[in-house]
Design a protein that fits this description.
By secondary structure, this protein is of the alpha+beta class. It has one domain: HPr-like (Histidine-containing Protein, Chain: A). It has 3 helices and 4 strands; from the N terminus they run H-E-E-H-E-H-E. Strands 2-1-3-4 form a 4-stranded mixed beta sheet, with helices on one face. Helix 3 links the parallel strand 3 and strand 4. The longest helix has 14 residues. The protein starts with a helix and ends with a strand. InterPro entries: HPr-like, HPr-like_sf. It comes from Xylanibacillus composti. Pfam families: PTS-HPr (PF00381).
């Protein structure tokens, strides 16, 4: 499994632990982070991403998502 695949699987698995909506934005596209397929088409390009997290466990979800993106050297900014 390539590093990219490992990152995608781990990002999706982490997102699915939370009930909050977790959406990755780059340019004018919005991808549901819980969708592995969506991530495959998005993370193939090296952009900087913005993460939008909304829901009852948003704070915990933001912290966990920042950690997993950093672990895989992916540049992500969490929208407030």
């Amino acid at each position: 499994m390539s590093n990219k695949n490992a990152a995608i699987v781990e990002i999706s698995q982490t997102a699915n632990k939370f009930s909050s909506s977790i959406v990755l934005q780059f340019e004018n596209k919005y991808i549901d982070v819980k969708s592995i397929l969506g991530l495959f088409t998005t993370l193939l390009n090296t952009h900087s991403y913005e993460l939008h997290v909304h829901g009852p466990d948003a704070e915990e979800a933001k912290a966990a998502m920042k950690e997993v993106f950093a672990k895989h050297q992916l540049n992500v900014k969490v929208a407030e």
